[in-house]
Amino acid sequence: MPQSTMISALTPNNNDHTLHVRVGRIWESMNKKKNTLLHTNVILLDEEKNHIVATIRNNQKQIYLPLLKEHRVYSISNFKVVPGPALYRSVDREFAINFFFNTRIEEKPDTGVIPLYKFELQSFDKVKNLVGRLRCLIDVVGKVLSYGHLMKMTNGTEKMDVLLINERNEFMTITLWKVGATHFLDLLATSKDGPVFVVMTGLVAKKFSDSPSLSSTNATRCYVNIDYAPLNTLKYALRTANNETPQPLPPPTAEQFVTSTGEIFRDLSISSVLETIIPTGTQVVRCLCRAKIVAVIDKNGWYYDCCPTCARALGDLDGKFYCLACDEETPSLAQRYRIVVQIEDPSGSTTVTLFDQEAQQLVGFPLPKLLSAQGEENNKTPFPPAINDIIGKVCTFQMNITPYNIIQGCKDYDITGIFEVNDVHSQQHILSDSNHTGNPINATAYKKQKIG
């Protein structure tokens, strides 16, 4: 029997290596635009707790995939050691493995010397510095505080947000797309209504409204309540946070919207929104409002010219574009959605503003595509048909009420989240229900709540 090589000792241009490894996870890399399979990835882990990714090409899939099962132990020989991928690395290692035509795979007894799991963990506070950096994918651990509904976007894709908390009471929002979301929900069903501690793998860092978040990829996998040292440490830290004796923790909650702070929003009718009083010392009150879009308002068009750095509207200074927020002249400009719509429910009517992400979610097309269809003139009026098509949609709006709305009497509220109600029965219930009106928020009734 040949001597096995540790992953740390692998070198290129040498086909004589033999690995004694455990298979971690297996997943397929897809070309999203073409919806085609690129290759299959296999993570291999050795007894020194080092891991490496192996690639199985499509023409090898029927040969090698039937021989490999997750968590089992194998002897693998006659493979190629090659440079690792430049971007989207699931393992932060300079080398990777390619299976060859004569690669040999033999299952071995599991003696327990090789760990079951190995992840590329990042702490929540490091995520903000990883936005836009795609060299390595991100793995995180956390306790699930809440999760949203599986939302179907206008373009047909589905997503769900999950809110995690760590031992420092820091929050992180994870957006799971379709396959990742359904996989997570399946795992939740096995948690038996108890607390859920999770490892999420293969994520990329995003930034929305100045808050960093994480988003799933083909490589994303969720591991719930597994026996893994960092997860066990987190469990103990949260259970003993306020008491030396471990205390029981609540299960995650299902929410209409998941926020990056764990805040729970009250459900208000339009009339209650209009009558709300801003509590002393509060700059913004956030609530949910369920209503129907009845009109698109012709108010400065349906998009605006903005600073490519901060997305604020640009001013004109001596014929040049100037960003007041950045306090500098900008040589170029960008465009973002800004659509003002009238909404109504059984209690009343008001107007709200849909900015870029929420507008695109309802319209179903990125702004550049509509601008291209408008031709060279890029007129802000008349509205493209896709803009007018949002009339009649029934939605739950995550709404901001500010002193500007109250003191200035401006009934034009900013929307920071939107959930389209596609079920006909639910639409009819919302549009005929006069009992979901809630009460206006005032200084004595309003209280910011946290979950967890």
TrEMBL record:
Coiled-coil positions: none
Replication protein A 70 kDa DNA-binding subunit B/D first OB fold domain segment(s): 5-107
Single GO MF descriptor: zinc ion binding
CDD domains reported for this sequence: RPA1_DBD_A_like, RPA1_DBD_B_like, RPA1_DBD_C
Superkingdom in the source lineage: Eukaryota
Record's keyword terms, sorted: DNA-binding, Metal-binding, Zinc, Zinc-finger
SUPFAM superfamilies noted in UniProt: Nucleic acid-binding proteins (SSF50249)
Keyword Cell wall biogenesis/degradation: no
Classification via Pfam families: DUF223 (PF02721), Rep_fac-A_C (PF08646)
InterPro entries: Euk_RPA1_DBD_C, NA-bd_OB-fold, Rep_factor-A_C, RFA1B/D_OB_1st
Family indicated by similarity: Belongs to the replication factor A protein 1 family.
PANTHER family noted in UniProt: OS03G0429900 PROTEIN
Protein name: Replication factor A C-terminal domain-containing protein
Organism the protein comes from: Heracleum sosnowskyi
Lineage: Eukaryota, Viridiplantae, Streptophyta, Embryophyta, Tracheophyta
